[in-house]
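Example record for the data management plan.
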Amino acid sequence: EMSLWLWQYHNSVTSSISRKTAESSDVKTVSSGQTWPSAKDCPSCQLTGGSWDHLQVYQYLRDAYWGDEDAASSAETAYRMSDIHVLDAKSTLVLVGIIVLILASIRMWSRRYLLKHNIGYLPLS
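Corresponding structural encoding:
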C-alpha cells in the first residue's frame, strides 16, 4: 500500500534528520517521540517493543486524511479517473492517426514532385 510506504518513509526521514541534528548539536540522546503517529494520537498503532501494527496505522491514516465521507467517494473518484485514462488512450490513437496521415501525404506529395520533375534514383550500375 502506497500510503503505508509513504508513512514509513516519512518516519525514516524524520529519524535521520533528528539523529543528524543531535550529532551536530552534541546532544547524546535522541527523543523517542519522533515517529508519527505518536502514542498519544494513536495508542493502538504501536505494539510493545516499539514495532508497529500496520493495520492500525493504515486505519489511522484513513481516518486522519480521508475520513468517512471521502472514503465513500473514493470509488467514484477512481471510476472517474479511469474514464480520463480511456479518453487519454482515445486521444493518443487519434493523434497517431493524424501523424500517419500527415506522413502518408508528405510521401505522396514528394513522390509526385519527383516524378513531375523527372528526379529519380540513380541506377546502381
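Summary line stored alongside the record: The mean pLDDT is 78.
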